[in-house]
TrEMBL record:
InterPro entries on file: His_Pase_superF_clade-1, His_PPase_superfam, PGM_Phosphatase
Enzyme class: hydrolase
GO MF annotations in UniProt: hydrolase activity
Organism, as annotated: Psychrobacillus mangrovi
Protein name: Histidine phosphatase family protein
Gene3D superfamilies, per the entry: Phosphoglycerate mutase-like (3.40.50.1240)
Keywords: Hydrolase
Amino acid sequence: MELLIVRHGQSEADLLGVHEGRADFPLTDLGEKQAKLMSVYVASHFPPDIIISSPLKRARSTALILQEETGCQLEEETDLMEFNNGILAGISKVEASINYPLPPGGRPVHIPIEKGESELEFRFRAERIFHQIILDYQEYERVAIVSHGGFISQFLKAFLNQPNTSNHVFSTGDTGIHLLEIKENVRIIKFMNKQEHLN
């Protein structure tokens, strides 16, 4: 079984200097072009059998463009959404630094942000949906997952069996692609954050 992990294209929040997270911004015109280039590349090199997407606009729009190019089934999964950043969603980073500053030393991993989730809850959510996908979709040879940068980093930690408190971060650029494989209980990384389709 292969997992093709795709980040959405550029969203309007990227241009506004705001905290995105659960704020539901759409793709920019550039983001739509990025998604189209990614979709053409994926369809010709790594066509999926099914696509599972976060329902947030920027991811869903990217997934719909991929579906149009590949012709395969698209399903939504709320657990693929980005970090629930609660009160920070949609507000400027300047405003957040003034009105909601981080405590000295940072927020402890087990304490949720106001009206949101904790880092541990985020990590456990990624762990849960990772195991659900590899069980529920095991009849498919290649499953495409369209999600968000922060979530993808947590999902990769789950794939790699990293500890819950691991401070590793896996970066994914706009429409960056990771290809993973699970074969006879061996977990293989084929490539990470491929963006050559944007060149």
